[in-house]
Specification:
With 372 residues, the protein is an alpha/beta fold. It is built from nine helices and 16 strands. Strand 2, helix 7 and strand 3 (150-152) form a beta-alpha-beta unit. Helix 7 (128-143) packs across helix 8. The radius of gyration is 22 Å and the shape is globular.
């Protein structure tokens, strides 16, 4: 598509909120970068229809912004405002908006056959052992919840999937927000011979880390991209999903939406894909104190409902090691804690979900909610 006249777009297009226009001296660059982002990730109607230049840039940008705002649960204004600009600037996956969800009964890896991957090239900022371990863990997150088996191949020639890294346009890293990308399988990928190999790449310029409070978590990005390799599209209506397009440090394990979609393709794993909900002990209204005990496999979230509960509560998981707590209201995260208690003020008129995830091992956990 041709580069638009940014001055004319700002003057006549009504594409920027007045508040943002007044507060950003670099607004021309912001508008140019936002339009390039919307075009790159195929939010623009012209790009979705495969047209070279189908609309005037102002109409194109307003419609593209509305599509993006709907996806990200932002106020749908059709204007570039502060919240929309901040979201556009967040790191994300490189798979574009026009990928179609494969859905139930459409092309997928053949059931009962192992999926083999090979690591062609490692990042230099982390050790090879770290990356190999995290890749294995990322695949295990999916193996836990659906009927697949994934193994490392002895060579590239024997692999179905090649994992690598790179940078710049030659490796399809054309947008500065992209952390990694992966192919989605299509019908030709399951015909043998020939059988094409799928690829996944990390951006080698990024500050990937194995853990800690800074940097980009390698495990989160790998687990997301492996969802694409299994045939999953982005989940555009649930920002807490592992397959949400925007990167989040909290999203490292398939959630309810992810599990639903992957089980549509492969079915549940051999055995229950998630632990049964606690049958007794947990009181959704919490009262002064409620407590429940259950077994939790790694990487499989357990959700406990909360409603008609008001006041400040302490939520504690015992033992706390390797556990993560999230309090959700709909798709919005209200509070988060890793390996420590979580204190939250609850509104009795609202409904919440307490989500507990265990990162490693199989544990019997006790969850306690106590009013302060």
């Amino acid at each position: 598509m041709p580069e638009p006249d940014i001055d004319r777009l700002l003057e006549r297009g009504n594409v920027v909120s007045s508040t943002l226009m007044e507060s950003r001296p670099e607004i021309k660059d912001d508008v140019r970068n936002a339009l390039n982002y919307l075009r790159h990730f195929r939010y623009t109607p012209a790009a979705l229809e495969g047209l070279e230049s189908a609309q005037d840039p102002a109409t194109e940008m307003r419609e593209s912004l509305r599509e993006f705002q709907r996806e990200q649960s932002l106020p749908v204004t059709g204007q570039l405002d502060e919240a929309t600009l901040e979201t556009i600037q967040l790191p994300r996956c490189g798979v574009t908006q026009d990928v179609q969800n494969l859905g139930t009964g459409l092309p997928r890896w053949k059931l009962g056959e192992p999926i083999l991957y090979h690591i062609e090239k490692f990042l230099t900022a982390m050790t090879e052992d770290e990356q190999r371990s995290l890749i294995k863990q990322a695949w295990q997150r999916w193996e836990t919840v659906c009927n697949i088996k994934v193994s490392e191949a002895p060579s590239a020639a024997a692999a179905d999937i090649l994992i690598s890294c790179g940078s710049g346009s030659g490796d399809d890293f054309d947008n500065p927000q992209v952390l990694a990308w992966a192919n989605l399988p299509n019908e030709e990928d399951y015909q043998s011979p020939p059988k094409s190999q799928l690829r996944m790449k990390f951006d080698s310029r990024r500050d990937f880390v194995a853990g800690g409070s800074r940097g980009t978590l390698y495990l989160n990005v790998a687990a997301h991209e492996f969802g694409h390799l299994l045939g999953l599209d982005h989940i555009k209506t649930d920002r807490s999903a592992l397959m949400a397009p925007i990167y989040s440090r909290d999203n490292h394990t398939p959630g309810a939406s992810d599990i639903r979609d992957v089980q549509n393709l492969y079915g549940a794993r051999n055995g229950p894909p998630r632990p049964p909900p606690p049958s007794e002990g947990w009181n959704p209204s919490l009262g002064e104190k409620t407590e429940v005990e259950f077994m939790l496999p790694p990487g499989v979230p357990q959700e406990l409902p909360i409603e008609n509960a008001g006041g400040t509560y302490d939520f504690v998981v015992t033992p706390p090691e390797f556990t993560m707590l999230k309090l959700m209201e709909g798709n919005v995260r209200i509070a988060f804690a890793m390996e420590e208690p979580m204190s939250v003020e609850l509104d009795s008129s609202k409904k919440y979900r307490l989500v507990i995830t265990l990162n490693v091992g199989m544990e019997k956990l006790t969850v306690t909610a106590e009013k302060k």
